[in-house]
Design a protein that fits this description.
Elements (H helix, E strand, L loop, with lengths): L1 H10 L2 H19 L12 H24 L4 H6 L2 H5 L5 H67 L3 H29 L9 H4 L4 H10 L3 H7 L12 H24 L1
């Protein structure tokens, strides 16, 4: 099932299209991100990663949600779900096969797109720069997988593709645009006395914030650029802890999807 799903994405050139988009945007940001300050060209790995993080937080979740929202409900509407369930596989194997195939397609396009930029900029970034850039690439793939999992879950719960797509867009708006505004509103209304201590832990309920912390705390200059050092304690910003939280965002929605799919 996973191999079939991956072949379908390769056949319709989805992987190539997304890789080209990532490559083009990453190159534009790397070379022209400082144009407003009157500078053109690669400035530093800190500035490049900070700019790419802002891009990835908006773009990657949207692509992942649009990729997975019809994984199950689309098969149901096309009438092919009954045929797939008639095969000698369990519902869990079908669900995981769908997810793993889509995840492979997404990771391939993400790593290919950003990897081409790493090859083009290798001489200018240097060894330390390439190390941090590879960490950014891997965390970007994790972010996509963390949003692909809720998309597949919505595909199981939704009655049709229209509702699944609407719920996916709503999910993107909530996590990317609304979630942080709600936390900020609570802090402002409470005068900083309400929710201040719990704020760093509330950020774990948003995979986009986990991705931001994971990349911001990897470089000192980026950390001061975002100003998160006064909000997030360094102990909470452990790469292993943030990576584990991202894995949780992958596993839990799939577990809910599996429970619903079996019923």
């Amino acid at each position: 099932m996973a191999a079939k799903e991956l072949r379908d994405r390769l056949r319709n050139r989805w992987v190539l299209a997304v890789a080209v988009v990532f490559t083009a945007l990453a190159l534009v940001i790397a070379y022209f991100g400082g144009a407003q300050q009157g500078a053109v060209g690669l400035r530093s790995i800190e500035f490049t990663i900070a700019s790419l993080v802002s891009l990835v937080i908006y773009l990657v979740p949207l692509i992942a949600l649009l990729l997975g929202f019809d994984a199950i409900v689309g098969e149901r509407e096309r009438g092919s779900l009954d045929l797939l369930l008639a095969l000698p596989i369990t519902r869990l194997e079908l669900l995981l096969g769908k997810y793993l195939g889509l995840a492979a397609a997404f990771c391939l396009s993400t790593l290919l797109g950003f990897g081409l930029v790493a090859l083009l900029l290798a001489a200018q970034l240097g060894g330390a720069g390439i190390y941090h850039y590879l960490g950014f690439m891997l965390s970007s793939a994790l972010l996509g997988l963390a949003f692909l999992s809720p998309a597949v879950m919505l595909s199981v719960f939704a009655a049709d593709r229209t509702r699944a797509s609407g719920l996916s867009i709503a999910l993107w708006f909530f996590f990317v645009l609304v979630f942080d505004l709600l936390l900020l509103g609570v802090l402002v209304l409470g005068g900083g006395q309400v929710g201040g201590a719990a704020l760093p832990y509330l950020l774990l309920f948003n995979p986009a914030d986990i991705f931001r912390i994971l990349n911001v705390f990897s470089l000192d200059d980026v950390r001061s650029m975002y100003g998160l050092t006064s909000i997030v304690p360094s102990a909470l910003a452990s790469p292993w802890l943030m990576g584990g939280a991202m894995v949780g965002w992958i596993v839990l929605p799939l577990a809910l999807a599996s429970w619903r799919f079996r019923r």
